[in-house]
Amino acid sequence: MLAINGFNYTDLTISSFSVGASGGGNIFVSSPTSGGGSTSCCVVLYPGAALPRPVTIEWMRLVNGKDRWCKKTVQLTGPIPENPTAFGVHFMPDGEIQVEVTQGYPKLKLRLANHNDGHRKAEGNVIHDEEKAVCKDGR
Prior knowledge:
This protein is mainly β. The chain has one helix at about 130, and strands spanning about 1-10, 15-20, 20-25, 35-45, 55-65, 65-75, 85-90, 95-100, 135. It is globular and about 45 Å long. The model has no long low-confidence stretch (mean pLDDT about 90).
């Protein structure tokens, strides 16, 4: 059982996300010292699991007053540490998603300034979800 930690390097808050069937909660935009989310439970990864392995990530944002759900399958490639404790999900600025298994809390991959918890910039925020994932209104 691995704790789920989300990191949001995009321009807008992620209202909810999940790894497979396991919920990861919401993730504000990251700051130079925080990934924007808290720890939630849990991803199951059995010892000796074959890699690479597909992992389905789903997330929701509020876009123009509507819930916008997106879904993407990414590859967990490893390495897997000897005593894994956490599953990190990194939502990158260009719309890519990186996943990793770590021993201890995952480290920030980018240190980006934020305007507030919900927005990267005061104006001109951009998201690339639909360029890299399948998205639709509602669930």
